[in-house]
Amino acid sequence: MTHPATTATRGGHVPPFSTPPSAPAIYMTTAFDLPGLAEFEEVLAGREPGYFYTRVENPNHEAFTHDVARLEGFEHGVACASGMGALSAAVLSVVKTGDHIVCARAIYGSTHQFLLQLQASFQVNVTFVDLNDLESVRKAIRPSTKMMICESVSNPLLEVTDLEALRQIAGSSITLLVDNTFATPCGIRPKDYGADIVWHSASKYLNGHGDVMLGVIVGGEEAMRKARTSMLLYGLNANPMECWLATRGLRTLPLRMARVTQTAQQLAQWLATHPRVKKVFYPGLTSHSTHHLAQKYLQDRLGGMISIEIEGGASEIDTIFHKLAPAIPFSPTLADARTTVSYPAGTSHKFMAAKDREACGVTAGIFRLSVGLEDFEDLRQELDQALAQS
User: What Gene3D superfamilies does the database record attribute to this sequence (predicted)?
Assistant: First the structure.
């Protein structure tokens, strides 16, 4: 018989059982117990299945990356603490000092910042180019170019990237890294068009409920082996609970994407006729600059993001936001189950230099609508009331 201190400390025993749970369990543990050194060496070497330390691997990490990889057409993946963590793991596993990266000019603001920091601190050269000008992309390639970075659908103007053309330009020696956060694998699988690594901020559509901070990259076995090493050494690992929540979110991803696409298409068509609206950015509209690419790559799987340009700037948009709240709140993120609005020039692209922001087309009069699961007519009425002139 042990003393109370020992009994309490060693509690929490789960008896073995042969019936698996209907839903995945959550493995909130720092480490996994092993009988001894020999068994540890077998698991460490991969000769025996198992886990030993959550920073290295955890059942929830494995379940989540397995599901995302399958959705994207790959077999391997790495979960990270955020989308930026996933980007860091991917890039730092490929480039070194003196190497060169070609990146889309129209890119998420933090991606732009990360690459500039990489250039300043580690002398990795970066060239930002307009992906709509393929000749400029070709001219940007150097012998030292090791990676090309783009978004399948850009944030926030929803420009669809010609991935086949980029793959052809990149050849076989340049790693093509594609951010598929906006489109999701329900919209496009970049691997089908030559992407080597696909990256997501899983906080967005993959999870879909606005309650996790998580990133993931998927790719081939060798690419993910290197990315996993970067993740481990830079401490970019994801939390098991976040992975569990996102795994649950994946179960409804196709249903959610179909719903938001249907509603967004209706809203975009209506907004395009609104007297207060100067321009609507949605790839399903024939007026969009990359509508032809949307027809090729996305077809009718267009997603739930709309960007709206009005006359005026931050003050006018702030008035609209206050009218929309609390029904449609301002939120500096996207792809929640509920509809939200954001202001790219003051959030996602705020810290870009003004000239770089302008080059992306992110002007003071643009706000972004992340369409959720609500009814179209309710959203239309709320937007109509908010857009009405004061």
Answer: Aspartate Aminotransferase, domain 1, Type I PLP-dependent aspartate aminotransferase-like (Major domain)
